[in-house]
Amino acid sequence: MVRENEIRPSEVAIEAPPATDAGLVFIGVIHTPWASRLVTPRQGREDGPVCRLEIFNPWWQALEGVEKIERLEVLYWLHLSRRDLVKQSPASDGTSRGTFALRSPVRPNPIGTSIVSLVGIEGSTLLVRGMDCVDGTPLLDLKPDRTLFKPIAPPQAGDFEVG
């Protein structure tokens, strides 16, 4: 297994440009059983452990109606991730692929997403299954899983044409 922040053979790091403030606001924190990336699962599982999405005040009111949604898309900030690799070797087999061809947490803007099942609510904390991040990960946003919705408008001529 790779150690944290190790560059594997065939991986390429760059000197990243200076960060600019995107104005992100953390709306909460994610509590999971995993203290390190080394033990965190690579993908969340529907039968995984119950994790807690603690929502900070003043965002509590934004939870109204969430109890009616069976699956949520959770967006979070992968605060422990490197941001400088443009090519990665996830299999450690000497081959590499571009960062944008992978679901690796190592990204220029380390935003993670998980589709989770809502299993309960305790005040301003959501209980979910399907997370795949370390304990204490900052929470960026919550959205209903888009696959639960149908398109608002019927298809129109030209919707699928490529210009």
Automatic annotation (TrEMBL):
GO biological process, alphabetically ordered: methylation
Record-annotated membrane-spanning stretches: none
Pfam annotation, one family: TrmO_N
Primary gene name: tsaA
Keywords: Methyltransferase, S-adenosyl-L-methionine, Transferase
PANTHER family referenced in this protein's UniProt entry, alphabetically: TRNA (ADENINE(37)-N6)-METHYLTRANSFERASE (PTHR12818)
Origin organism lineage: Bacteria, Pseudomonadati, Pseudomonadota, Alphaproteobacteria, Hyphomicrobiales
Entry protein name: tRNA (N6-threonylcarbamoyladenosine(37)-N6)-methyltransferase TrmO
Family per similarity comment: Belongs to the tRNA methyltransferase O family.
CDD domains membership: UPF0066
GO terms, molecular function: methyltransferase activity
Domain of life: Bacteria
UniProt-listed Gene3D superfamilies: YaeB-like
Keyword Methyltransferase: yes
InterPro entries assigned: TrmO-like_N, YaeB-like, YaeB-like_sf, YaeB_N_sf
Ranges for domain TsaA-like: 24-154
